[in-house]
C-alpha cells in the first residue's frame, strides 16, 4: 500500500511536467505534419495544434512585421518592439475549439485591436476587417463592430509567456468570445474592407460569426 501511495504521489508530482512535455512534442510534430493527424492524439485537456500549411516560417524581433492597410487614412507597419511598446491588456478566458476541446482559464495579453484601428484612422466606407497570416494560407475576418470589441486582442503573450511559434507567435489574433478558429495564428496583415470576406474555414463551411455556443451547430457554454 505504501508503494502504491508513493507511486500515486510521484504521478501527481510529475504530471504537469509530463503534460508540458507532451504538449511541446505535439506542437513540434504538428509543425511538420501536413496531414493534421497529430491533432487526433490525446492531449490531456491541453491545446491541440493546427496548421493549414505544410510549413510555416519562423519570425522574431528582427524580421516580424504587422501591416495595417486598406480603407484607412494612415497605413502603418509595426515591428514586434512597436507592439510591445503600446499599452497592453491582459484577460483570462476559456479557449474553446469548434471541434470540442477546451482549455479553461487561459491568460492572453496584447494590444487591443481597436487601438490599432483608431491609430490607422478607419474610413467611413469600411465595414469589416480581414486578417492574413505569414503562413501564406490562412485568413480570417470580423465585422468592424466585432473587431472593436474590448475582448479582441492582437496578442503577444499567452499563459504569461511570449507566444511561441506553435501557438501562432510571435503575434496572433485573439477573439475571446468566438471559437478559436477566429483567432488567427501567425498574424501579419490587418486590412480594412467594405464588407466581410469569408476566411479560410468559412470558405469550407464554418460559420462566419463564430460565437461560442451560438454557432456551428454547437451549444457550448459561452466563455
TrEMBL record:
Domain Oxidoreductase molybdopterin-binding: 55-201
Matching InterPro entries: OxRdtase_Mopterin-bd_dom, OxRdtase_Mopterin-bd_sf
Protein name per UniProt: Molybdopterin-dependent oxidoreductase
One Pfam family of this chain: Oxidored_molyb
